[in-house]
Design brief:
Layout (H helix, E strand, L loop, with lengths): L2 H6 L2 E6 L2 E6 L5 H10 L17 H15 L2 H13 L2 H4 L8 H13 L16 H12 L6 H14 E2 L4 H5 L3 E7 L3 E8 L4 E8 L10 H12 L7 E6 L10 H22 L7 E5 H7 L3 E2 L2 E2 L3 H13 L9 H13 L6 H18 L5
Parallel strand pairs: 4-7, 7-8
Antiparallel strand pairs: 1-2, 3-8, 4-5, 5-6, 9-10
Helix pairs in contact: 10-11, 13-14
InterPro entries: RNaseH_sf, RuvA_2-like, TEFM
Subcellular location: Mitochondrion matrix, Mitochondrion nucleoid
Main location: mitochondrion
Length: about 375
């Protein structure tokens, strides 16, 4: 008889080092009688309630759209719709939240489908979800004006976003950047100009790193080789990341990231220095994740699907968010396809970081 059978029969099990001992106990024991009754209870004959499956996704979207109309009076809605339906691309860019692709998407949607009939219809425009649409509507009603109140939040944003601090004039004058993301086995980079055209996008395997005792000569040789392939740009933007030092098991990975970051800083500044000014910046990884809505709590998810969408839009749209030159699009699509099996996150992240840098740090500082 197995252990469960003995228990149901009113037995008792005792564990001693190395073996189990089983011996009977009186059936009157309340504990074992309760166990026996609960395990041997007859199945109910009452019919089970069948709860039909309902897809709430579309209903939630509609409800969000209807909620928008309830948040604003009829006069406010008319004012917002007047701006959305009559403002040119440049006039829309006067609103901070509509700079970059958002203003272009509004104009394209308006030309293709006609004027916006209600605030809900704005959610049909690419890059406009409920929260974004709500913020845009509020900004149209209460546009930010010049003065110290506008500059202070902007400066705080830049300080949280990139380090070391860079003057607004230098950011406004940026013509191209190289976005660099390093992992434990590879380093990837994306070279983009201010029109968000991808001039170069590739990755290098660095399999010798994180082996043995972290020899400095190996790091120097590997990273120097990678930098020699990088083009000249106004800024070199590194991803600022790393696991918490409180997790001792991840200390080797943290040490690796710090070594790579330090060498990239030193070698890039030495190679591409201009007038003694910083050319290498660090960008907050989670800020990029929030920009592309990749964050779940404090965890950033993969940007693979967003990159895949950007590649498709470059072919299907006349004015895509990111432009891949026709003579290189085939090679970039092949590069992306070759990484789908092992998910080269560094490659995806380098492109997304470059786009976020322009949209958050460059376009948002232009007056």
């Amino acid at each position: 008889m197995n252990v469960l059978g003995l228990l149901l029969a009113g037995g008792k099990v005792s564990a001693t080092p190395g073996r189990w001992r089983c011996f009977p106990v009186p059936l009157e024991s309340s504990l074992f009688q309760t166990l026996r009754n609960s395990c041997c209870r007859k199945k109910t004959t009452a019919p089970k309630k069948i709860i039909p499956h309902v897809d709430f996704s579309d209903e939630n979207t509609k409800e969000s759209g209807k909620a928008l109309d309830k948040l604003f009076s009829s006069e406010q809605q008319a004012s917002i719709l007047h701006v959305l339906n009559t403002a040119s691309n440049k006039e829309l860019e006067a609103f901070k939240l509509l700079r970059g692709r958002k203003s272009i998407n509004i104009v394209e949607h308006r030309e293709k489908f006609g004027p916006f009939q209600n605030l809900e219809s704005l959610m049909n425009v690419p890059l406009f979800r409920y929260k974004t649409t709500l913020k845009v509507c509020k900004s149209i009603l209460s546009p930010e004006t010049g003065g110290k109140k506008k500059k202070l939040p902007e400066n705080q944003l830049l300080r949280k976003l990139i380090k070391p601090e860079v003057g607004r004039e230098r950011l406004k004058a940026v013509n191209s950047i190289v976005s660099i993301v390093s992992g434990t086995r590879r380093i990837a980079w994306a070279h983009l100009d201010r029109k968000l055209a991808v001039l170069d996008w590739q990755q290098n395997e660095c399999c010798r790193l994180m082996k043995g005792t972290y020899p400095s000569s190996v790091y120097l040789e590997e990273i120097s080789s990678v930098i020699s392939k990088m083009p000249k740009a106004d800024f070199y933007v590194l991803e600022k990341t790393g696991p918490s030092i409180q997790n001792s098991s991840l200390f080797p990975v943290l040490l690796h990231f710090h070594i790579v970051e330090a060498m990239l800083y030193a070698l890039l500044n030495k190679t591409f220095a201009q007038d003694g000014q910083h050319q290498v910046l660090s960008m907050n990884r989670n800020a990029v994740g929030k920009h592309f809505e990749l964050m779940i709590g404090d965890t950033r998810t993969s940007g693979k699907e967003i990159v895949k969408q950007l590649l498709s839009e470059s072919v299907l749209k006349e004015e895509p968010r990111v432009f891949f030159p026709p003579d290189k699009i085939v090679r970039y699509r092949q590069l992306f396809s070759s990484t789908e099996q092992y998910r080269a996150e560094e490659l995806y992240d380098s492109l997304l970081q470059a786009v976020a840098f322009y949209e958050l740090a460059v376009f948002n500082t232009e007056s």
